[in-house]
Amino acid sequence: MASADLTYELTCPICLETFTDPVSLECEHHFCRSCISQSWDKVPGDVSCPQCRQVFTQRNIRTARTLGNIVEKFRLLKVKVTQPEEVFYCQEHEEKLKLFCEEEQKAICVDCWSSGHQTHKDLHIKEAVQKYKNKLEKSLEFLQKQMDLSLQSKREGEEGILQMKAQVDSLRNEIKSEFEKMHKFLFGKEELMKAELERKSNKILEEMGNNLKRTLEEMSALEGTIIDLKSRLQIQEAPELLKDIQVLLKRSQMEFHNPGAASSQLPVDIVDEPFKYINVWREMRAVISPVPESLTLDPETANNLLSISQDLTSVSLRNEEQNLPDQLQRFDCCLCVLSSQSFTSGKNYWEVGLGKKSEWVVGICRESINRKGNITLSPDNGFWVFAQLSDCKSLKIPDVISQLKVKPRKLGVYLDYEGGRVSFYDVEDMSHLHTFTDTFTEKLYPIFNPCKTDTADDTDPLRLLTS
Question: What does the alpha-carbon distance between residue 217 and residue 223 come to, in Å, rounded to a whole number?
Answer without folding.
Answer: 10
